[in-house]
From TrEMBL:
InterPro entries, sorted: AKR, Aldo/ket_reductase_CS, NAD(P)_OxRdtase_dom_sf, NADP_OxRdtase_dom
One Gene Ontology molecular-function label: oxidoreductase activity
SUPFAM superfamilies named in the record: NAD(P)-linked oxidoreductase
Protein name: NADP-dependent oxidoreductase domain-containing protein
Keyword check for Isomerase: no
Lineage: Eukaryota, Viridiplantae, Streptophyta, Embryophyta, Tracheophyta
Annotated family: Belongs to the aldo/keto reductase family.
Pfam family, one: Aldo_ket_red
Keywords, ordered alphabetically: Acetylation, Oxidoreductase
Residue ranges occupied by any NADP-dependent oxidoreductase domain in the UniProt entry: 16-243
Gene: LOC100843184
Length: 272
């Protein structure tokens, strides 16, 4: 049986597929003008399951190809099970899963392939065996969790760091939106005549990261797009190093003393 979150997720994906179809048919936007990413769930890591998982996503989204397909987590559960019960956790075999991802890239079904929630070490291990290097590592990144080590590692290896929860996800059950209340972010915003959200997004852009802010509000979507023709000057940018660093999405639900990752330190390889 699906948990509510999964059911909601499937409904949401189908709605996105319907919306995309309508927009393409009405000529509002062309497929090639969009950049569409999806992720491989941790129950589909077996190499033989990877093409089927991508196929299901393409069917749900009514698309022929994805621009980017990511391994969502360096973590695996038995097929058909979910996160929550450590008995279902099995060691991931990232090189094998990556081999299947590479074949999807070869076939043109995923124009780029990458990972998500990988530490510098896990990303380095993957790069050392990959035929096609990961294009992207999508991770939590905002002024309150700046990913300094991963940022440097990605820069030196040519992997693009893409920031999820760039506003620290106010209102989510996992995170707290603390970045929008941070005194340094607020004072920079006041000096520049911008909102704290715009400053948080602009910080990621100036770090060279992609940013993925979520909003259902037209006004906030417009505000979040208005971050390209101004910049945070160096003296104010330097202030961000004073912000206390706390990883908000620790993935503690993955860690179990009887399972693959016994501590958060093991899961994040010390980047916690
Ligand atoms: P809403 O969808 O009602 O606009 P993140 O991208 O870090 O995951 O954060 C998403 C959350 O941040 C959503 O709850 C969203 O609410 C809120 N949000 C998005 N843009 C802004 C903004 N410009 N100012 C304040 N909150 C925002």
């Amino acid at each position: 049986m699906l948990c509510n979150d999964q059911q909601n997720y499937f409904l949401w994906v189908l709605q996105v597929g319907l919306a995309l179809k309508k927009l393409f048919e009405e000529g509002v936007v062309k497929r090639e003008d969009l950049f569409i990413t999806s992720q491989l769930w941790c129950g589909h890591h077996a190499p033989e399951d990877v093409p089927e998982a991508l196929g299901d996503s393409l069917n749900d989204l009514q698309l022929e190809y994805l621009d980017l397909y990511l391994i969502q987590l360096p973590f695996r559960v038995k097929k058909g099970t979910n996160i929550g019960n450590a008995e279902n956790y099995i060691p991931p075999d990232i090189p094998a899963t990556w081999g299947a991802m590479e074949k999807l890239h070869d076939a043109g079904k995923a124009r780029a392939i990458g990972v998500s929630n990988f530490s510098s070490k896990k990303l380095g291990d993957l790069l050392s065996v990959a035929r096609i290097p990961a294009a992207v590592n999508q991770v939590e990144c905002h002024p309150g969790w700046q990913q300094s080590k991963l940022h440097t590692f990605c820069q030196s290896t040519g992997v693009h760091l893409s920031a999820y929860s760039p506003l620290s996800s106010p209102g989510s059950k996992w995170m707290n939106g603390k970045v929008l209340k941070d005194p340094i972010v607020i004072s920079v915003a006041e000096k520049l005549g911008k909102t704290p959200a715009q400053v948080a997004l602009r910080w990621n852009i100036q770090m060279g990261h992609g940013v993925l802010p979520k909003s259902v509000s037209e006004e906030r979507i417009k505000q979040n797009l208005d971050v390209n023709d101004w910049s945070i000057p160096d003296d104010l940018l330097a202030k961000f190093s004073e912000i206390k660093q706390v990883r908000l999405l620790t993935c503690d639900f993955i860690v179990n003393p009887d399972s693959v990752y016994k501590t958060l330190d093991e899961f994040w390889d010390g980047e916690i």
